[in-house]
């Protein structure tokens, strides 16, 4: 119980800044994806708490997060804080969401986007939730501008790529990453493996497929676990050294939200790097 009271006390003692305007809702966010949306679109004074994973590195572009209380992931501290809106998604615990609803709290449950159009709609919806549709429109414009830059970079060279992650997982054409790559004009080799949403591929299958580049989520020569070690296998590194790998950090694509513009700009920069 002490930690629940501590969180509530932290909210009451939040330093600095005026109270939110009377017509703007006070918010808490239940997961890292809604954290990204709330941090980008809401006023700091509106945010009463972020998810328990908000400081684990996913939000490295969000600035100083120490001003915001970290929630437990359960219902108790949210009930103590009493926000106007709880921003959540279908991936948050159903029992927690149902309890919050039963206690009279308003939940805004955002769907997980599978395409760029759905990502735009999610940003638009989050703008309405936070009371800042103008900021949402600006984020969508930023996304569209980044997409145009990526398409221009892709049009100069028609590459065939394979989106590959830990343990040999390949994102298929029906996955969000596959959809994102297709929007830029890149050709995914995942279909040649028979993958729609995705699947695991062996080293032999990947090398035999011979895509122009691998699309990976991180660079470097150190693996933290066996899953990452797959990407550093000598056979794979022989055919796909850093010059043959396009790096788009996972945190930019995992949620499909306001960081997608950054993901597309990262892709554009990587295409210029590998095309030299």
Automatic annotation (TrEMBL):
A Pfam family that the UniProt record links to this protein: Peripla_BP_2
Region forming the signal peptide: 1-21
Domain (Fe/B12 periplasmic-binding): residue spans on this chain: 26-276
UniProt KW keywords: Signal
Tree of life domain: Bacteria
Nucleus keyword on record: no
Name assigned to this protein: Iron ABC transporter
Native source species: Bradyrhizobium jicamae
């Amino acid at each position: 119980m002490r930690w629940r009271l501590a969180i509530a006390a932290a909210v009451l003692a939040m330093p600095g800044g005026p109270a939110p305007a009377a017509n703007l809702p006070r918010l808490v966010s239940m997961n890292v994806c809604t954290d990204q949306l709330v941090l980008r679109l809401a006023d700091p004074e509106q945010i009463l708490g972020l998810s328990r994973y908000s400081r684990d590195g996913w939000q490295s572009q969000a600035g100083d997060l120490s001003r915001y209380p970290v929630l437990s992931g359960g219902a108790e501290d949210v009930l103590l804080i009493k926000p106007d809106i709880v921003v959540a998604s279908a991936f948050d615990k159903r029992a927690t969401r149902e309890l919050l609803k039963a206690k009279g709290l308003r939940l805004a449950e955002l769907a997980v986007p599978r395409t760029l159009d759905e990502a735009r709609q999610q940003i638009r919806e989050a703008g309405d939730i936070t009371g800042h549709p103008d900021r949402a429109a600006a984020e969508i414009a930023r996304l569209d501008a980044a997409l145009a830059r990526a398409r221009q970079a892709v049009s100069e060279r028609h590459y065939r790529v394979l989106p590959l992650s830990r343990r040999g997982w390949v994102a298929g054409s029906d996955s969000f990453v596959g959809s994102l790559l297709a929007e830029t004009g890149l050709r995914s080799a995942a279909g040649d493996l028979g993958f729609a949403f995705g699947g695991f591929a062996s080293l032999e299958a990947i090398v035999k497929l011979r895509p122009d580049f691998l699309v990976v989520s991180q660079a470097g020569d150190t693996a933290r676990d066996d899953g990452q070690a797959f990407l550093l296998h000598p056979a794979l590194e022989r055919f796909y050294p850093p010059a043959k790998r396009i790096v788009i950090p996972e945190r930019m694509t995992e949620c499909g939200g306001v960081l997608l513009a950054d993901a597309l700009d990262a892709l554009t920069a990587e295409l210029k790097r590998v095309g030299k």
